UniProtKB/TrEMBL annotation:
Protein name: T9SS type A sorting domain-containing protein
InterPro entries: MetalloPept_cat_dom_sf (IPR024079), Secre_tail (IPR026444)
Domain Secretion system C-terminal sorting: 764-841
Superkingdom assignment: Bacteria
SUPFAM superfamilies (alphabetical): Metalloproteases ('zincins'), catalytic domain
NCBIfam families in alphabetical order: Por_Secre_tail
Amino acid sequence: MVRSVCGSCLFSFFVFFLGITINGQAQKVESIPGPVIVCPADFDDQHTSIPPPERFLKEQFNSARRKTSTFEVTYVGFSTEARAAFQQAIDIWETLLVSEVPIRVLANWRPLASGTLGSSSSGTLFRNFQGAPKIQTWYPVALAEKITRTEMNDNEPDIVANFNSGANWYLGLDASPESGEFDLVSVVLHEIAHGLGFSGSFSVSGVNGSYGFSGFPQVYDHFVENGSGLQLIDSENFNNNSPNLSDQLTGSSLFFSGDIVKNNNGGNRAEIYAPDPFDNGSSISHLDETRFPSGTVNSLMTPQIGASEAIHNPGPITLNLFADLGWIHTNIDHEPLTDTEDLSSSFQVTANITSDTIVFFDSLFLHYSTDTFKTSERIKMQATGNPNEYQALLPEINNPDGAFYFYYISVYDSTQRQFTSPGQAPDLTSHRFYVGADTVPPNIIHTPPLEFLRETDETVSLEAIATDNIGLDTVLIDYFVNNVQQESFGLVRSMEPDQEDLYEGEISLTDLSLQVGDTLKYRIVAIDSSSNNNMTLSPEDSLHQFIVEEVFDPVSSYSNDFNTASADLAGDFFVSTPSGFSDGALHTKHPYDSAGQQRELNFIHRLRIPITVAPVDQKPFIVFDEIVLVEPGEDGTVFGSDQFWDFVIVEGSSDDGETWQPLAPGYDSRSEQEWLNRYNSALSSNGQLSSAVGDPALFKSRVINITDTFDPGTNIWIRFRLFSDQLAIGWGWAIDNLVIQGDIDDKIINGLNDFIDSKEDVSLYPNPTNGSFTLDVRFKKPLRTFSVAIFNLLGEQVFERTFENTGIAFSNDINLQQNPDGLYLVRMEIDGEFLVKKVLIRK
């Protein structure tokens, strides 16, 4: 599969827009879960002890101990003694790091794989936040919060750390473990460091080495160089996902090359761990064990911690590495200037400068240009008299036709690093604003709140995000009943904090006397406050439309062979008999459309009749035959992950279509080998189109258990959805012989029936759970492999593990305590057969 750009995001992350531009495009803040780094045990006794840093020792017994940061730990399963050891490590970090935002740690005491002492991850990674020193780069949330001095992840854990309850731990605080004992304080210090940012994104799969999540590196990755001083993430040196990069990652000659590390290490870079073969979860994200052996002050962040080895000091290399990452930082707080039509004035640029170290204010300059820094000027910024505040004036624009101003602020601090606002200016970013007559129309983001309108509905609530470079004058609704325009009305700007761009209103239906079959159409209109009163219509060339539908009573079963016309379903699919087919079926457009610049398209067909979910013993299943020829995701990807491109999915709603939940994880052409073979049999030269066509021989049966998502007795709506991203496309989806809770053959509803006798042989307990539960399965025979994947109701994968050489009686503890409350789908797979159960997390 050839794809020329990064694939679309399947699910929306926490997003807001910045004044940072890259090649003229505003960048958005995005977040993803952090990677897990593992700490294995070295069972050879080391008999070494490194005491805590002098800074900590001076404050250790001070009742008014001066902390420069605060950690808040949630303990799960820890004894009193283990908590005390954990807290000792926290106390050390609190005297070494500077942050105004509390750093929250979720600490789990639980069984881990044999030989593993602990593992940890940043709870979240963020990129393109305001003030980020490096753009298009993932930062661990604790570091991002330190830089921004704001809470960014809604009080979720900043670090998730696990410690092996089965290890032979030394829980003392005096750095004196005996033979065979592993010092818990040392391991906690180590795992916390990973969660704070001592972690890269490099990996090796097959012969190829790669880096990045969603195509973007972590901040740590920027500093990784080979012996010749070549940066590994520089595409001019090494291609991502290439054998050449794999050779570098396994060549035992890689270095962390930060300026602060080198300036405090005799000009030398720090050797990092790069063994052959690549050690997933450990390679690159540690210092080299040979260069920093047990008993030396920099040995904490080597890949293994040995028995009777105590290291209560991160060491100067690690602390200087953290400084390079951003834990020693200079903030340039500046509110970017916005477009204006005023050509007759100069423009004041103001910034607040604060730092963890000394700032050289003689180096504080405002740089500006009107030609994207082909030429530029600079002005020294002067103190205003307010604490930490500095300013400079940009001169008037001497161009009656208007012009763009491009500018950035720069300053050096005592670490000899230059900081800019925005980050990486001017080569990759700059602030910019336009001076002159405004011709830019407003921007509107709006999604219709409903897919259909019922004759009993009384209102339609609408909301939109509307923005403009100058400012908005009016945001209103035009609407039409049976193509007759009604009186327009304005939407009201939200008064909620951080939602000043949200506009809300509702259309009252009570006086419109709508009947079944009537149409309600509308559009959103935004007019800016410029001299030109620029206007945007959304949608631009059409209207959103609802057709008033009859309200049907819920039924207990439904079936349709699609051989006769039916008004039971409505949407984007077609009941037809294409060439090569002998009878009717429900078909998407063949081929379906690519989203192109829209980033994503959704083709939806909905059953208009609600279904009452049957009890578990009365076959609460959806069964249908189907052909799926849609773009397959990359090898190994699962629904909800990056590079799981186009997909089809069956969803249900229990709130009249306001929200939809997967009845089973989405899937693509890889779901059946015959589908994948057919899709790949007719690819275009660039891999962007499969001209392969479906035929009846490709029909396969699909079985979905509704009670994996909804409780018996719930009335639900059901819909079928094909998701298309902006690149490759294929023939599409065909559905036939749909049966919902009707006369279903028992042989086709027992997932994994070749491996288990009945669903009663699979149990999850406790359920509901606080996030920690046990999965028990009794198999007919021992298995070679058995895979478990867990998804939330957004379809995002939160857990995956493959178990090998299981016995007949399988049992495994699963911990999802770091995940929010809600319903989760636990999918078990053996040789392409699936069984899905649900588990409810309720803390």
